Amino acid sequence: MDYLDKNADFEVYPVRRSRPIVDASFIELESPVSTLPSASTILITGCSSGFGLETARLFLDKGWHVIATMRTPREDLLPRSERLRVLALDVTDAHSIRRCIDAAGPIDVLVNNAGVGVMAPLEGTSVETARDVFETNTLGTIAMTKAVLAQFRERRAGMVVNVTSSVTLKALPLISVYSASKAAVNAFTESLAFELAPFNVHVRLVLPGRAPGTSFGANARRRMSDGFPEAYVEFRDRRLAAVLDNEAPHTQSLDVAQAVWRAVTDPSAAMRTPAGADALEAFRA
């Protein structure tokens, strides 16, 4: 493999992780994924925009009961439906999680999509900012998953889909903290799969690529407020231009929604499902 990305102004060192840490085929052989009924209920975090909103819309269109969660609920983001509920949820707040799970009632699928980003060199990233990213991306995912496991285990049915990132497959600069928070979720998910297989509860990963059409990049840049070291400014500006390039292969929100749909409904789905043209390239590298 060529270790220099000819389209970039920095060297990219690919991380060869296209295969999961665990042997997913073993899990599937031990307890095959059962077909979920069309009237199943799915709870999706982070539905105010982007991937979560598009995923909620897709499952609603497919006839599912959808619980769309966001920090500040908005009823106008999705078409009105008796199969839709919009609930408040802050995945970093234990009381908010409990209120949301109690209000939701029994669910069949949890999609952990809520996340925050940060684009900055480590030298310009405070420990407080790093902790904030991990609180949402990693610990929030763990807390939400833990909150639904008892009902899934008791029913011997259920699925958790964790949305992470293709940057865990191909390392990129200025997102070391964000990448670490998502890589931790990959490892968490693949280990958890072994724990839950005996109870017919399944976990899957969806790995989106770069999505310039969403608000994620803007949100990540807002976390540069710690102060950007002058030595990195020119490098940052070149990197930002690459991030915002709509001509290069990238990921659309619908790509992610469709990948989540496959992960949930296709019994042959692998542990990891890439979402988007660039994510697929990284997955195959």
Q: Which features would summarize this protein structure in a list?
A:
285 residues, alpha/beta, Rossmann fold, seven-stranded parallel sheet, 9 helices, 13% strand, disordered N terminus
Briefly summarize what is shown.
The protein is an alpha/beta fold and 285 residues long. 42% of the residues lie in helices and 13% in strands.
Architecture overview:
By secondary structure, the protein is α/β, with parallel strands linked by helices. Strands 3-2-1-4-5-6-7 form a 7-stranded parallel sheet, sandwiched between helices. Helix 4 links the parallel strand 4 and strand 5. Helix 2 crosses helix 8 and helix 4 packs parallel to helix 5. The longest helix is centred in the middle third of the chain and has 29 residues.
List the helices and strands and how they pair.
Elements: H1 24-30, E1 41-44, H2 50-61, E2 65-70, E3 84-88, H3 94-104, E4 109-112, H4 127-155, E5 158-163, H5 176-196, E6 201-208, H6 216-222, H7 233-243, H8 253-265, E7 272-275, H9 277-284
Parallel strand pairs: 1-2, 1-4, 2-3, 4-5, 5-6, 6-7
Global geometry: globular
- What helical percentage do the residues reach? 40-55%
Order of adjacent strands in the largest pleated sheet: 3-2-1-4-5-6-7
**How far apart are the termini?**
8 Å
Number of strands: 7
Q: Could you tell me the CATH topology label.
A: Rossmann fold
